[in-house]
Specification:
2 domains, 33% helix, 458 residues, Alkaline Phosphatase, subunit A, 17 strands, two-stranded antiparallel sheet, alpha/beta
Amino acid sequence: MSPNCRISRRTVLRGLGTAMALPLLDAMLPPEGGSLFARAARAAERDRKTPNRMAFLYVPNGQHMPDWTPEKVGVDFDLPPILRPLEKVKQQITIISGLAQDGARAHQDGAGDHARALASFLTGCHPRKTHGADIKAGVSVDQVAAQKLGAMTRLPSLELGCDAGAQAGNCDSGYSCSYSTNGSWKSESTPMAKEVNPRLVFERLFADFATGNGSDTERALRRRQRKSVLDFVLDDATRLKERLGASDQRKLDEYLSTVRDLEARIVRAENGTAEGPASFAKPKGIPEDNAEHIRLMCDLIVLAFQGDLTRIVTFVIANEGSNRSYPFIGVAEGHHDLSHHGGDKEKQAKISKINQFHSSHLAYLLEKLNSSTEGGGSLLDHAMVAYGSAIGDGNAHNHDNLPILLAGGGGGTIRAGRHIRYEKETPLNNLWVSMLDRMEAPTDKLGDSTGRLSELAG
């Protein structure tokens, strides 16, 4: 069969219980043509097949704001210490100051800022103070998008984390653990449980739902045979390569190599013997190395976007109020304990180190997205990655002037490489509705939103 054939964007490689989606290939686009009309048609088809994606990454306990906030606004700004790991993608990020999440405030409910922060971050709603079954928050921005766009992809949305979630118990001054461990809410009383095991996320991405395969039995068979998912789709991949041009063959090889490398890393992490703190005991299969755990989740996000398996992701890097220690970067004390620094310079320096550790993984994700070509640009050009917290300074427990960063070009609708400062008390939800517009999933109102952030377009 001759190369340069045309194939569908929904082409998958199939094997035992496996369906592997593919990145956007030239063969999925109309043929090259010399005329202006033909070139315009190809460009239009390429744009149609390169949809926007959105991801929300949450970090707990706020930030050390003096080391987060650039001194200058506009394009002429220097990255402050916490954000210096993002130097390579500086032109693809927008730092947004001045936003507030009023839903995280007490409103006469007393203590519980950590639980309220995560519960309100993507909903803009003040959670009901309860540690019983009568939890109530609001529908989160990711689920608003999933309800409108979820049918277009294999997974309507993907919820990830590194700390286990909980749907019951008292975790923060009378607030249910469901508030401080879940960022995504399908309804006001239904949080979306996040997956913390990279292996299970990997198998979910590549299970063959269309044929009803991908069962536990088939996954167990693959493990007994010690085979990669790629071993089961190899014949299909070989047949497809024979039909592709040289450029697409290289792109397919790179993609399959990425999948194999990620799967091997997951296996190595599962077989690790490092012991973590007793307070963070994890079931078998979840990496003890926190840095590798975060990186694996970031790589899975990239794979999910490359194969258009989902366009909507939430990733809670650590549960709100987390007291994890970070001895591997020289911080032996717990994160939450340090966040109550009381102005102590040494504690503030350690908080800043933790904050920079987290931002270095944001940089890792963004660089991966930026290096993955798609259509006329990169995955990052066709994505919006929001990063931050609904607590400003961890010591003050304030919920205004939040540390918020938006990365990506939003399909050419965002002029990045800037620091934008909004008026005090501008709702964070104004950013979320602005992102929904770019996902073609508009809503009149979300939480306490009052409008759009028109400045994002430049």
